[in-house]
C-alpha cells in the first residue's frame, strides 16, 4: 500500500509540475472557490490535498494565506530551475523531488527521535514494552519484530533499522518501473 502511495505521489507531483509548466505559474496566482463534493477532477484534487498533498501546497504558499500567488509560484519555479534557463527539465524536477524527499525524511526522523525521547520515561535510551505502549502505541504491535537483540527493549537504532527494513520490503513489492526513476513517466499512464 505504501509503495502505491509513493508511486501515486510521484505521478501527482509530475502532473502538477506539468500543469505548472503549461500554465507558467499564472493559474496558481488565482484564488478559486473550494471544490464541490462529488465525482470529477476537482473532487480528486480535494482528496489529494486532504491526504498528504497539502504539504506540497503549503510549501509553496509561503505567506500562508491559502492561495498561491504568481510571486510564490515564480519563486518555486526559480528554485527548481537550477541552471536558470527559464525552463524546467526532467533532471531538475527529479533533483528537486529528491531534495524534498530527503528533507521530509530528515524531518520525520527528528519527529521520531523527539517522540522516542518523550516516551523514554526513565531516560535510559531504550523503551520497554510498557513505554512503547504508553508513548508510541503504533509501534507496540511491531515490538517483537523491532527488538532484534531480544532484550525486551527497543533502542532508537533498532527502530530506525526496523523502519529501514520495512521500507526496503515495500520497495521490493513495488512494480519495477515505479521505483527506478522518480522523474520517469509512469507506464500506467496516470
UniProtKB/TrEMBL annotation:
Residues of the EF-hand domain: 68-103, 107-142, 143-169
Ranges of compositional bias, category Polar residues: 177-190
Region (Disordered): 165-190
InterPro entries: EF-hand-dom_pair (IPR011992), EF_Hand_1_Ca_BS (IPR018247), EF_hand_dom (IPR002048)
Residues annotated as signal peptide: 1-29
Keywords: Metal-binding, Repeat, Signal
A GO MF label: calcium ion binding
UniProt protein name: Putative calcium binding signal peptide protein
